[in-house]
Amino acid sequence: MAKEEAIEMEGTVMENLPNTHFRVQLENGHIVIAHISGRMRKNYIRILMGDRVTVQLTPYDLSKGRIIFRNRETKEGTPKDASAEQASTKKS
Hints:
Helices cover 16% and strands 39% of the residues. The chain has two helices and five strands. A hairpin with a 4-residue loop joins strand 2 and strand 3 (31-36). The protein is an alpha+beta fold.
């Protein structure tokens, strides 16, 4: 029996829960409980309320997930653009 693929979705962290669990609202409006993946724990990636994250869901239980990526954002709240940053550093 083949292992089924995980579903990846974008979401926003709504609440911090004990034991590195988080309540995440997905783009489609569903709310799931997610924990941090081991690689993020190992590298001390901090997740705060309001962060945009990528959540991996199993097809067997769509109410639980694993946070696999925290999207980087600038102070203004827009996604960070590496090319714009490189252009500004070259001008200086």
